[in-house]
Amino acid sequence: MDDDQRQIETRAIHAGQQPDPETGAVMTPIYASSTYAQDAPGDDRGYEYSRTGNPTRAALEANLADLEGGAHGRVFSTGMGAINTVLNLCESGDHVVASNDVYGGTHRLFTQVYDQYDVSFDFVDMTDLDEVSEAVHSETRVVWVETPTNPLLRVIDTAAVAEIAHAHDALCAVDNTFATPCLQRPLEDGADIVCHSLTKYMGGHSDVVGGALVTDDAELDERLGFYQNSVGATPDPFGCFLVLRGVKTLPVRMERHCENARALATWLADRSEVQRVYYPGLDSHPTHETAAEQMDDYGGMLSFELDATLEQTSAVVSNTDVFTLAESLGGVESLIEQPAAMTHQSIPREERIAAGLTDGLIRVSAGIEHVDDLRADLERAFDTVLG
Known about the structure:
This protein has 387 residues and is of the alpha/beta class. It folds into two domains: 3-247, Type I PLP-dependent aspartate aminotransferase-like (Major domain) (Aspartate Aminotransferase, domain 2); 251-386, Aspartate Aminotransferase, domain 1. The chain is 36% helix and 15% strand. The chain is built from 14 helices and twelve strands. The chain has helices spanning 8-14, 55-67, 79-87, 104-113, 129-135, 158-167, 180-183, 218-231, 237-247, 250-268, 288-294, 310-317, 349-354, 371-386; strands spanning 72-76, 95-99, 120-124, 140-146, 171-175, 193-197, 211-215, 274-278, 301-306, 324-325, 335-337, 361-365. The strands form two sheets. It has a seven-stranded mixed sheet, with helices on both faces. Strands 8-9-12-11-10 form a five-stranded mixed sheet, with helices on one face. Helix 2 (55-67) packs parallel to helix 9 (237-247) and helix 12 runs antiparallel to helix 14 (371-386). The longest helix is centred in the C-terminal third of the chain and has 19 residues, at 250-268. The protein starts with 7 loop residues before the first helix and ends with a helix. 49% of the residues are buried. The model has no long low-confidence stretch (mean pLDDT 95).
């Protein structure tokens, strides 16, 4: 059977990896070398210096490219390093259109770093395709899509947005961190670049930080590779090893993440303390139909809004035992956080409120614990604070 005919559960374990030819080791070794011997100056064995290339990293890049259905993969020391590399494609005077509820770190990079280099940004509701069309123009270089978005879980019609971007010769880049290739593959829908924070579901165990970019375009990959090497935001081989290990169980973990998130969302929707639940798997979610068409399942992330003040909401997220109060997401353990005071604090309050990120908003990363324990933990927190 050809590799591209295998199911994702099989490819997650085998793609990009072969037993080590020297020892037969099943798991890709950690090549902890900073430099490589050459038979003569400039000879090409494929590796010369580990910022430029490393065998452990190469295995991970091939694995991730395969899972996303792309031809080329690049990995980075952080997800922000990957996003920054996409922005390196922009020049002074270029324009970027982005989702209006992107991750706070992405918003900070766009508005506080690249803005000083005369790259302009518009943040729009990408569920409104007319709004996207109005924002994209001849100077637009990149249309940056998060889907599902962070933290309101809006699902963007990737194919439609990519078509708008391409009509103006702009690139469509999709942050696929929340969904992973188990649930959607943006390149199949017309995206040019797929981005991941490997820290999240791909690593899956809250023990490694990393990022990745995947594309089908060889020329675009070469440009991304130039910036990857020149800027130097490349990962160490041990980090690559940890992500390779994590990816092997990704499909199995994602099944449980989705199952738990769906159960929690349904339960929260019936709680009197909760004003609104944001989960694409609920019929009430405004982008449920798009999610049903574009995604294979609805993911392990959900958010909900309490009828509570900023202080009360802070107290709720501080009074859980099974859920850990922490930023990040996608690990085997369940995490809870308050975007207004944590992940999205860098966004000005007026802009944050206008985008729907209220003081009572709570974001949950559903882990793989037993869902009864997760429900009981939230119920205790509600009773303790809101009683």
